[in-house]
Write a structure and sequence with these properties.
By secondary structure, this protein is of the alpha+beta class. It has a 12-stranded mixed sheet with strand order 3-2-13-14-7-6-15-10-9-8-11-12, with helices on both faces. It has a 3-stranded mixed sheet with strand order 1-16-17. Strands 4-5 form a two-stranded antiparallel ribbon. Helix content is 26%, strand content 32%. It starts with a strand and ends in a 15-residue tail after the last helix. Helix 1 packs across helix 2, helix 8 crosses helix 10 and helix 9 packs antiparallel against helix 10. It has 2 domains: 270 residues, Hsp33 domain (3-Layer(bab) Sandwich), CATH 3.55.30; 53 residues, CBS domain Like.
Length: 393
């Protein structure tokens, strides 16, 4: 028997397979809608990270806080159970500041990004690029309100990576894959990973697939290809929400993921001038995400730095992880959707067909007899497989 034919497959499809880390941060602020003022910043990490200072993060506290906004005193108090950090896991924390005029999210995602790196055996620059998008996906997934809603982020560029795809849900499950995992580029002029060059120019699309209606799709041109700037631009252009975004992945000298995480801070429509100016000043002084993580800071403490002086209150912590829901049964359904003509072509080859999940690399092999059984399902009753057999999409 000949070797199996190997095909890439994404079983979960939305409706419509020298070291330097990096950080990308962007802020877009709006003084009045729709007038827009834009500032982007990108900072890369050191090629070889120094050791941590052995600092232990403080526990997050859920005490009540009060703030004055338009003469109304607003109070936010977290349930202590909502602030329990899952042991040995990545997580996302969300909270508010400035009396509810600012909402904030931060995440630590080292294990998540490492799982993706293990699945794809990606080069450092690809690990950094995909890791940033995975972190953004984990945070954006935590914003989803409806159970069963799925968010898909796709970056398509003219750089050697080609594309990056990430999906995330409201339960903290995130997965992703690069178009090309084996990209090696010279370091940029600052001696850092050149994620922007690896991605290139192109587009970012966001699809929100909801269980109760048609999916919502938005697409923008990439701002810089550094991912953080592009997520900030998406929120400003498509959601009309001024946002500050910081995303970082620190790749160690052995190609493992040393640190990964990020934050998204968003201004509400009634945000006052003083709050905007304080946030911008803080962002000008804040260190890179991975530097803070490598110093032992928690996501809560990172938001405390970003929102210094704005009465930040953490409200909820939720775990996140790299998890793929592919299975043999789902892969069978994908094969059936190829249609009778394509299935007959696979059968005529006389070889087993290997289906490989693009997201996690899991492999599912189907014998010729199993393909014939699937063909019977794909072929309408009374029809005969052949060139004129209609395909089932």
């Amino acid at each position: 028997m000949g070797a199996a034919r190997r095909l890439g497959v994404s079983p979960l499809v939305c409706k419509p397979s020298t070291v330097s880390p990096g950080l990308s941060a962007g802020i877009i602020t709006q003084r009045e809608f729709p007038i827009e003022r834009t500032r982007h910043m990108s900072v890369d990490e050191d090629v070889r990270p120094e050791s941590t200072g052995g600092r232990t993060p403080d526990a997050a506290e859920g005490s009540a806080t009060g703030s004055q906004a338009d003469g109304v005193s607003l109070y936010y108090e977290a349930d202590p159970e909502d602030l329990v950090v899952p042991p040995d896991s990545d997580y996302v924390v969300r909270g508010v500041a400035a009396g509810g005029m600012v909402r904030a999210f931060a995440a630590t995602t080292r294990r998540t990004v490492q799982a993706a790196r293990d699945a794809h055996q990606s080069s450092p620059v690809v690990t950094a690029a995909l890791g940033r998008l995975l972190t953004a996906g984990a945070i954006m997934g935590s914003m989803v309100k409806d159970d069963g809603e799925l968010m898909t982020l796709t970056v398509r560029g003219d750089g050697p990576i080609g594309s990056l795809t990430v999906t995330a849900d409201s339960h903290g499950h995130v997965k992703g894959y690069p178009g090309n995992a084996d990209v090696w580029l010279p370091l940029n002029g600052s001696g850092k990973l050149d994620v922007g060059a690896a991605v290139g120019s192109g587009s970012l699309s966001v699809v929100q697939d909801v269980p109760w209606g048609e999916p919502y799709t938005s697409q923008i041109a990439l701002a810089t290809g550094e991912i953080g700037d592009d997520i900030a631009a998406y929120y400003a252009e498509s959601e009309q929400v001024p946002s500050a975004v910081g995303l970082g992945v620190l790749v160690d000298t052995d190609l493992s993921v040393r640190q990964a995480g990020g934050f998204i801070v968003q201004l509400m429509p009634d945000c006052d001038e003083g709050t905007i100016e304080r946030l911008e000043a803080n962002l000008g002084d804040v260190r890179s995400v991975t530097e803070m993580l490598d110093d032992g800071m928690s996501p809560e403490e990172i938001l405390g730095e970003v929102l210094r002086g704005l009465d930040f209150t953490p409200l909820r912590v939720s775990p996140t992880e790299f998890r793929c829901n592919c299975s043999r049964e789902r892969t069978e359904r994908v094969l059936i959707t190829l249609g009778a003509k394509e299935l007959q072509s696979l059968i005529d080859d006389g070889k087993p067909t290997e289906m490989v999940c693009n997201f996690c690399g899991s492999s599912y092999e189907f014998s010729v007899d199993e393909l014939r059984a699937l063909l019977a399902e794909a072929t309408p009753r009374g029809a005969r497989a052949g060139p004129d057999t209609p395909e089932r999409a």
